[in-house]
Amino acid sequence: MKTIWARIGQPITLPCEFESSGGGTVAGSSDQIEWRKNGTLIFNAFGTEPGFFASDYEGRLSRASAMDLTIHSVQLRDQSIFLCSISHFARGKTVGGRENGEMIRLIVNVIPRILEPLDGLKIFVREKGTLRQNCTADGIPSPSIKWSKKTKNGNWRVMSYNRQLIIEQFSADDEGEFNCEAQNFEGTENAIVTIKRRKPLRIDRENASLLNKTAVEGAAVFWHCSVEQRKQWDEGKVRIHWTKGGKAMNAMEIGLRAHFNDEDGSFGIMFLRRTDSGEFECHATLLDSADELLERDSVKVQLNVQYKPEVSPKSRRFYALRSDHPAELECLLEANPLPTLVKWTKNGRPFTEHTEKSIDRNLLRSAVRIPSVNFRESAGIYTCEAENIIGVTEPNLEIHVVVAEAPKFTRTPAPKYIVKAGERVEIECEGFGEVPIRRVWSRREDGRHRSFSEAKFSIANAAHSDHGIYCCVLISSVATVSREVQLIVHETAPQCATNFRVQCEGQQRLAVFWMPGYPGGDLSQSFRVFYQQIRNDSLNVANEAWKMIGQRTDQSKLHVDHLEVFGEYEFKLEASNRIGTTNCTIPGTYYTCSKLDRPTNFLLVNSTAGVLILKWDEVKEANSYRIKGRKNCDAKKEGKSNWEEIAKTSGSTYNLSSAKLNLGPDSKCCAELVVQSVRPPFSASDHSSAVILPIGCSVGTLSSNLSSLFLFSLCTIFLLFLLFVLFFFYSLHRGNEKARQKQRSAKNGKNSKEKKQCQKRMSDRRMERRIGQIGMGSAEGTPFGDSFDNE
């Protein structure tokens, strides 16, 4: 394949060469010549005829010498693969041999063209800012880019070979003419731009008119907003516009009364209204030649429109008050500034008992309180008048007060009506009042009232759904009174049970309680309870089918067991009697009492500059984890603080910024970190074991605590030892005292025994002596001998 390069817009001749002929081949008068582009026929001729050309090339193709083909004014779309061929036909034959020439690849080159920046563009760069200017060009082959700056002597100095020219800290020395040059071997293209510095865009805040303003309703105000960059302003590069509350003026009604002057940035509002009060903002923007925003500045001013007091449309002008009840009349006043004086009159006489309270910035509430309404002293015409520095209310508020009794029932319905299913129900309720009344009926359903305004309550055929509490209501401007009526419908299916309660009694057990509804008459009713799991795990899955709890029962309590751990359930109850069945949904979603395991192996894996890498074992049922921390400080100073949540994550690792711990280098505190497993709506797990930071905290920061503890323990041991010694000596002394007492007792006992023995011996001796004397006397014939014998 042969490659030929052509320049766009220039002619090119494509040669038709054959390998068999060693160069060119001359076509005979009967030979057919064809040229194809990417397989599509674009030229066809016989012999030396001019031939036929494809319509797309009409006027740009011509036959050159021999079998060559010339393309005039080459276009980019001509870039393709061309092939010539010749078919030889013998005389009198329609089929001949075909021979293809060498394939030709035509490549079209394009001279560079600069897309950005435009030649002659003026660029302004903020002083000490950064210039970033692109030079974008196309061409084939892709051109190279060069940035140059014109020096004072008129030469060009190369600044960069990159597509983007970057100059940081732009200053006066950087100003000048810069050339963006794009070049390939087909040619060169240049774009010269002028780059100048400028000071930051700034609105002239010294302008005396650019201040907050206060004006009276109906007057006019003006502001003048200009910038300090007058040169750019004169060249039309600065745009000034005004907004109110962030909205353009032409998008609001105020724009119809506003005046703008683009030449000097002045802005004014004619015929001021109270709604014009608010914040206005002057915006100045600096644009480049392509209207791209370069810089902006803005100044805010406040407008305060003052007006005299006016009665608010929300003020009531008629009151019907209930006798013997307290009441309050109010007068709502809109004013700026708020009224400094409020006057009330009753039937033309001053009424001094009133109070004022500011409700809003420009709204004042003045009220007259009547402790107990009575016809003679309370009825009449009251007026309210207010005054501020702008003026007085015109007209005043005039309030008409009448006193009336509350509506009364002339026909009161019975408290209870009992009917059978299919029977007609009619309940009459009538009343009257001194002021117009309105009578409505309402039905209480699920704690709410549904109203219907039929004067006479009637049901053609009472049914199960009509059972309930109804209320007849008399409404007037004085008071509202009502009477409740219970409608009981016999011989129907049971009414829905009430007071549903589902109680958790374990990780896989729930108890369901309810209060049976009306059974439909003197009928027995039974119940069935169904449950459905609506979420099986942390992912939302399809609801399971309804399942029945146990068997039918006449009790008002059932238990359901073997539920899923971390299960979520809803319930419905079915009440039945011999007439029918009623299905009732138990409101709410209920959960088993499942508890997550606490994370284990909570560790500080690594600690880099400013980042702590924490890791723990995953908990199977957890959706996320909550990292908590607290400070553990010297007990003499701060003490332990409460646990505070630091971070929440779904993974089992977390990169914690040490800045969140707020531990300074001079801090005497340690940080304790724990992690909890979390799975809403279930309770979080217990805390994991704690990680104490910094690493050496237990040795360094807490050493004072340990020293204090050791000293306290040592003192305690010494005191105990001292007490033991004292007790020992006391016990020894007591023992000695007891021993001495025993010795004294023993000695005294021995002495008394010896004394007794001595006394006995002496007594025995005296007795012996005495007996001896008697014996001797009888032998000698004592004068007592006869006496003893007679005895």
UniProtKB/TrEMBL annotation:
It comes from Heterodera trifolii. This is Uncharacterized protein. Pfam families: Ig_3. SMART domains: IG, IGc2. Residues 751-771 have a biased composition (Basic and acidic residues). The keyword Disulfide bond applies. Keywords: Disulfide bond, Immunoglobulin domain, Membrane, Signal, Transmembrane, Transmembrane helix. The keyword Signal applies. Residues 1-96, 112-196, 200-300, 309-400, 407-482 form the Ig-like domain. Residues 740-791 are annotated as: Disordered. The chain crosses the membrane at residues 709-732. The lineage of its organism: Eukaryota, Metazoa, Ecdysozoa, Nematoda, Chromadorea. Residues 496-595 form the Fibronectin type-III domain.
